[in-house]
Request: fold
Amino acid sequence: MKERLASPEGVPAREAKRAQSAPIAAGSDVAEVALPATAIAWHEKAKGSASLAVFAVIVAFTLVGFTRSDQFYNYLTWSNILTTGSFTGIVACFEGLLMIGGGLDLSVGSAFLAGVMSGTALSYHGWNDFVAFGAAAGIGAGIGLVNGLIVNYGHIASFITTLGTMFAIEAIVVTLTGGQPIGPLSASFTRVGDGSIGPVPIMLLYMVGIALCAHVVLEYTTLGTQIRAIGGNREAASATGVNTQRLSTILYVLCGLFAALAGVLQASYLGAGDPTLGASLNLQAIAAAIIGGVSMYGSIGTVIGIVLGSVLLSVLTTGLILMRINPGMQDFVVGVVLIMAAGADRMRRQRMIRVSRARQIEIDEGAAT
Reply:
């Protein structure tokens, strides 16, 4: 029986089959392009189960919250939880896409801060709101472009590259602003992020719209297939015709752009630019992605899971405060959830490799006969 090839559109089946049937070395990465159909089918089941598990944890913690604090019945509490989760969610969506594509960006918090301070500075000095938001997003895209070029064409590890740009950007922002907040801002600027449509916070709608676009790209386009391919096995993806360097650079650009956009939106929501914003967002975005089912090894993950991971982090941090849990224990709980998610990812990866190896043996035996 012929296996269905998971090759990008327009790529010769012969090349995809060559990548698919290549021997898999111990400990090697596995991509959809290089996986037989049986392993791909198992992976599709795993994607849904990860999101379902995160949703179940959100529901369980919320039910506990209802029994521990009356504030869980308050509309303003949930408005705050969803708004806070939306800022993290926007950043995490594209951090997650980058991780699915095999990359990592530790500078998203700095890009977020650059968006905050550049957008508010322009608004404060009388520039049009469109210019303020556009310039902030452009600066973020520029940061992502620098990261992408250094990683993909300078061949420096993403961890080192983005760690370096994180420190550099923070230093530049503090130097230019003197570490002082910027405000007050115009009513038209603050109206963009601080409002609601009926009972729904406007930031939640922004996040849902952005996440929906990312979901469609990842799950229903050739580009999404290629993102998963370069995340699992970059060499196999390149063999099937994917321009891996260009695609990875695009992911870094998108990561920086939307981090800065989320930053200027939060400044709009708060009504001022605070140089302390985004300080912990680097790890929050990565944590939300991993908790939501994104694999640290690339290729696996969904935007739905990432959004749920962001909401879970927001529910945990706000809920633990409302339940008057010791602040030190709040970080402990978040850390335990993150470690459990990482452990689940590791077990899932090992299972996929075992499935792939077993199927490879069947292919080799069939070819021998």
About this structure: Residues 50-233+240-342 form a domain with the ABC transporter involved in vitamin B12 uptake, BtuC fold (CATH 1.10.3470). Strands lie at 196-197, 200-201. Confidence is low (pLDDT under 50) at residues 1-42. The CA atoms of residues 24 and 222 lie 25 Å apart.
